[in-house]
Hints:
Bound molecules: 2-phosphoglycolic acid
Radius of gyration: 17 Å
Helix content: 25-40%
Largest sheet: 7 strands, parallel
Distance between the termini: 31 Å
Oligomer: single chain
Amino acid sequence: xxxxxxxxxxxxxxxxxxxxxxxxxxxxxxxxxxxxxxxxxxxxxxxxxxxxxxxxxxxxxxxxxxxxxxxxxxxxxxxxxxxxxxxxxxxxxxxxxxxxxxxxxxxxxxxxxxxxxxxxxxxxxxxxxxxxxxxxxxxxxxxxxxxxxxxxxxxxxxxxxxxxxxxxxxxxxxxxxxxxxxxxxxxxxxxxxxxxxxxxxxxxxxxxxxxxxxxxxxxxxxxxxxxxxxxxxxxxxxxxxxxxxx
Length: 246
Ligand code: PGA
């Protein structure tokens, strides 16, 4: 039930191309860290943010930004695969960002999908985010079905970190990171929509024709749990950076 809620307007930035999208997105993080070196960053995985992370590594190497005091929380992780699996988000983050910058290992947080009691780890993850003071800047991608994090359609907007069953379309989209479809985990642990909306500022990156339908749904302004990203209309500071869509 959405009811009487305050609608805000998302800011849309059209980038000329993927490189520009990556630069604009990275600039949000550089500015955030320069204004507040101990920022709490919410991070995302997937193909779209790869260029943004490359830009951040370049900025770090050029001395434009430091991660020394940054604290990070990733959106999600698969359940049932080990952290050293090449398709895990632990592995993705190490390869795309963490091993190239001066972040302290103790300041890196990802949901733990490969533990005896994943349910307990959802509660622990929420507590860790709260202890860190909440997320200052959250990066998001978006699924073809409008998922943010791994919050698939019909996830309640009130959900906090949770275990979720992946939809067939998500498993198919992510098959490229695995040898075969059967290897793609059926479940993941993800920050909930409420967790995401608690971030002070949000940047969503989206690129390419496959995201056209999601782009149009997001632009329409309609808020519905059928389309998880529409929850972002309830937040006051969201910027959508997009390219190669319209
Ligand atoms: P993509 O994934 O950037 O690889 O398209 C986005 C997502 O599924 O959230």
